[in-house]
Design goal:
The longest helix is centred in the first third of the chain and has 47 residues, at 20-66. The protein has a six-stranded antiparallel β-sheet with strand order 5-4-3-2-1-8, with helices on both faces. Helices cover 40% and strands 25% of the residues. It is built from six helices and eight strands; from the N terminus they run ααααβββββαββαβ. It starts with a helix and ends in a 5-residue tail after the last strand. Helix 2 packs across helix 3. With 228 residues, it is α+β, with helices and mostly antiparallel strands.
Length: 228
């Protein structure tokens, strides 16, 4: 009797292999195991991506304030450059906005501001870095931090030549997008076949300029305290 009963009780491995319930539990266990592994990889990858983006942001800030050549000269000089992250509460009424920006100090003097902003492009979100002079009167540079626009068309917003149109533009006058060379001081020439992407970038820049032109000052900048 004991021998017969022993034969009727399958081993755990055989039970998992030969029964529907056992196979279901096996699939569930494997799904949990692979899900946990995938989540761990995703967390580590997200942290790495964010760290890389932060490093890219910090590396581009001097160029947006002084231009590439002057930024290299300053980097090799003896006077230190401070890049201080912070926020600005801008706008009025029921919908104020919070901007993330960087205050740039060189040789103890305010050298400029760099604002991080984003908005919807033709495909997905476009993230920009926008340089502004110490007086908040003109743009000093533009860099596309992230975009997923159409290859060969919309992604030309990353080209230095196209981005260079924004440098020197007044913050007190909204920019427009023109299909072709317009000659207007407030016009940005659209990328052929990518007018929507061109307008998306210009719209983000206009929104930032409207928010900061009357609100960004040394006293309104709020530094982000670094955690020790």
């Amino acid at each position: 009797m004991a021998h017969a009963l022993k034969q009727k009780i399958p081993s755990p491995g055989r039970w998992l292999r030969d029964t529907n319930l056992g196979q279901a539990w096996l699939v569930l266990a494997l799904a949990i195991l692979f899900g946990a592994a995938l989540a761990a990889v995703q967390v580590n990858l997200s942290r790495r991506i964010e760290a890389n983006r932060q490093n890219e942001t910090l590396s581009k800030i001097p160029e947006l304030v002084w231009g590439p050549a002057r930024a290299r000269e300053i980097k090799s000089g003896s006077a230190a450059v401070q890049i201080i992250p912070g926020t600005l509460q801008a706008g009025s009424g029921a919908n104020p906005i919070t901007l993330n920006l960087f205050k740039v100090i060189h040789a103890g003097q305010l050298a400029g501001w760099v604002i991080k902003a984003g908005g919807q492009g033709y495909a997905e979100k476009i993230d920009l870095l926008i340089g502004i002079d110490p007086q908040v009167s003109a743009l000093t540079g533009l860099f596309v931090l992230d975009q997923k626009e159409t290859p060969g068309l919309g992604n030309k917003i990353t080209a230095p030549g196209w981005r260079g149109q924004f440098k020197g533009r007044s913050t007190g006058r909204p920019l427009t997008v023109a299909a072709g060379l317009s000659g207007s001081e407030a016009a940005i020439d659209a990328i052929t076949g990518a007018t929507i992407s061109s307008r998306s970038v210009t719209r983000i820049v206009n929104r930032v300029m409207a928010a900061v032109k009357d609100s960004l000052e040394v006293d309104t900048f709020r530094p982000i305290e670094r955690r020790s």
